[in-house]
Design a protein that fits this description.
It contains 6 helices and 15 strands. By secondary structure, the chain is α/β, with parallel strands linked by helices. The model has no long low-confidence stretch (mean pLDDT about 95).
Amino acid sequence: MDKNVFLIDHPLIQHKLTFLRNKQTNTKEFREIVKEVTALMVYEIFRDVQLKDLEIETPISKAVGKIMTDEVAVIPILRAGLVMEEGILELIPTAKVGHIGIYRDPETLEPVEYYCKLPQDLHKSNILIVDPMLATGGSVVKAIDLVKEGGGKDIKLVCLISATPGVEKVTSKHPDVKIYTISIDSELNSHGYIVPGLGDAGDRLFGTK
């Protein structure tokens, strides 16, 4: 495995992954689990975040606490990344948020950009690009291109399910970007879906199919 690919396999996450994969999981449950899993992933992703001392006063006495010094920007790839964004903002409500709209042409499987709005001063931020599925890698590579064009440097990609071809494409095109995922599945089918995967994450999140 590439040194910049991190498989988060905590037992709680693997337990919840079972319900994400299960086609019997309804829209409400699926959405809630995506938020929960994303939040659990953030604990691991920010394990090495920079902290600074802050003197505070408890009800008993003075104390020295710790606070984050890094600015954080969350950039979901529309539309499926929106629910992952919610999970992160519940933990880091001060994070800035950008949005990138990309869809995959069903014939060519190539990414097509239709929207991009990014926070200012991206070069100062710890950036999380979020998308539930890393399949062919085309949309994600395009999103990373856009973030780098906007000044982003410290970029992490957060995906729930990844496919080996997508991982290889991202690490080839953007070897400096760290990838965090809870599963790496080996195959894509003829429609570009991850096997076994969990189906179309957007449709399952929003009940559109």
